């Protein structure tokens, strides 16, 4: 007995609207929003310039935490379910945030 493959699939464009909201909202709220907050906190912290300034360490930590969250978001977006559903522009936000946070960490 052979089974015929159905042409109706979950991956049809008309079915992706709700799935984009289901996958994109938690990704944005739980990963990219905290990363944006950490990036802005890294810029808000102004160290005095001393070699053992704890504010410098805090700003460096927030910059590195932002890069780590963006990397986790990029890895999660690369999962085939997310990649097919969300599209390629979802790679732009973590890349930009991670680049800004990396540059902030390097200039401290």
Question: Concise description?
Answer:
With 108 residues, the protein is mainly alpha-helical.
Strand elements, count: 0
The topology string of helices and strands comes to HHHH
Estimate percent helicity: over 70%
Beta strand %? under 5%
The major beta sheet can be summarized as:
none
What form results from the Cα inertia axes? elongated
Q: Radius of gyration in whole Å, from Cα?
A: 19 Å
Main structural class = mainly alpha
Could you list the spans in which at least 5 consecutive residues all have pLDDT below 50?
none
**How many distinct helices?**
4
First and last CA, distance: 68 Å
**Can you give the mean pLDDT?**
87
Question: Mind explaining what this structure looks like?
Answer:
Keywords: Membrane, Transmembrane, Transmembrane helix. It is a single chain. Helix 1 runs antiparallel to helix 2, helix 1 runs parallel beside helix 4 and helix 2 runs antiparallel to helix 4. The chain is 70% helix and 0% strand. The chain is an all-alpha fold and 108 residues long. The relative contact order is 0.16. The chain is built from four helices and no strands. The chain is elongated and about 75 Å long. The chain has a domain of 47 residues.
Give the topology, please:
Elements: H1 16-44, H2 54-77, H3 80-86, H4 92-107
Helix pairs in contact: 1-2, 1-4, 2-4
Keywords: Membrane, Transmembrane, Transmembrane helix
Transmembrane segments: 21-45, 60-82, 89-107
Key terms for this structure?
mainly alpha, 108 residues, 4 helices, 0% strand, elongated
